[in-house]
Design goal:
Layout lengths: L1 E4 L5 E4 L4 H29 L5 H26 L5 H6 L1 E5 L7 H17 L3 H9 L6 H6 L1 E5 L31 H13 L5 H19 L9 H20 L11 H6 L6 H6 L54
Antiparallel strand pairs: 1-2, 3-4
Length: about 325
């Protein structure tokens, strides 16, 4: 990436085109120009057969200059730096400040290009591109231009996996006002990239983020809930609140938008929640590493629970039991 500063002190990050793509674009432009030049030459030869040799030579030189020199200049001027070869390769000629080129820029590039591309078979242009840090040839240096790439591969947008269904709506009463934006960003980045991390490393990161989030909210992480599933459920709750805040009660003209409906939590069924397993994270993509989660001890049955302590008979129903504490004098 090359950082350019405009006249308004705005920094632009542009990716300069390198020699292979530029050479392919120039080759395509030359092939198109030569095809047009051959067609024009054939038309001139057939139409000027009655002229003398000097006139035919003058017309051939004029056609050469107009087609092979004036043609690229006109195309780059009218298309603002995009010739046929550059369109095919996803390139564009811009000024040093990132703006579109004008006629004078295309004229200087075209005239110097005759020397460094046509007369030297591109040797001078290749050497200049190798020497330049941004891959510029002599025509770009004198014209104050730069060839940049327009089609840049876009990185895949991170997808936050949804939490398990039995966690939807479980954190509706959670206070999220004290959670800073930096922690939200860290949680989102982890959820979008947790499949690319080592299981042990990802699990430790999830535990650390879950503890930080629980400390900010004032409520501990529920027992038996994987930290990654807890983070995803809290993020879903935050998105649902933002959707309700943006659309009021979640309706626009009496209807629920599709984006809001997807973001709103689904009310948990008490019966289904009671019958749900303690951890159903494998189907949702939250599979803990081996040995990372301690064994969850099931609750004792009614027969195994200890008996409740009985109140001594000497304490009446309306009298509080004595603790033996005597206030100081």
């Amino acid at each position: 990436m090359s950082e350019l500063v405009t006249g308004e002190a705005v920094a632009l990050e542009l990716r300069p085109a390198r020699l292979p793509s530029r050479a392919l674009a120039v080759l395509l432009d030359l092939m198109a120009a030569m095809a047009v030049y051959v067609a024009v030459t054939i038309v001139l030869v057939t139409s000027t057969a009655s002229l003398d040799e000097a006139a035919q030579t003058a017309l051939s030189i004029a056609s050469f200059v107009l087609v092979l020199v004036g043609g690229p200049i006109a195309v780059e001027t009218l298309s603002h730096g995009r010739s046929l070869g550059k369109m095919a390769c996803g390139l564009r000629v811009v000024r040093d400040d990132g703006g579109p080129i004008r006629f004078r820029h295309a004229l200087v590039r075209g005239l110097i290009g005759v020397i460094e591309i046509l007369m030297t078979f591109g040797i001078v242009a290749c050497i200049a591109s190798f020497v330049s840090a941004r891959g510029r040839r002599l025509g770009d240096v004198f014209a104050g231009t730069l060839v940049v790439r327009e089609r840049i591969p876009v990185a895949r947008t991170g997808f936050v996996p949804p939490p398990p269904p039995w966690l939807s709506g479980r954190f509706a009463e959670l206070d999220l006002s004290a959670v800073p934006d930096g922690l939200w960003l860290a949680v989102r980045q982890y959820l979008t990239r947790m499949q690319q991390l080592d299981p042990q490393v990802g699990w430790s990161m999830a535990e650390r983020l879950a503890s930080d989030l629980a400390e900010r909210t004032g409520a501990p992480v529920p027992h038996g809930v994987p930290p990654a599933a807890y983070l995803a459920a809290v993020v879903q709750e935050r998105q649902a609140r933002e959707a309700r805040r943006a659309f009021g009660n979640g309706t626009v003209n009496g209807t629920v938008p599709a984006a809001t409906a997807a973001a709103l939590p689904v009310p948990a069924d008490p019966v289904a929640t009671a019958d749900a397993p303690a951890v159903d994270s494998a189907a949702a993509g939250f599979r803990p590493p081996a040995g990372a989660v301690p064994e969850v001890v099931s609750e004792p049955s009614d027969g195994e629970r200890p008996a409740k302590p009985t109140v001594p008979p000497e304490v009446s129903a309306g009298e509080r039991p004595r603790t033996g504490f005597v206030p100081p004098a």
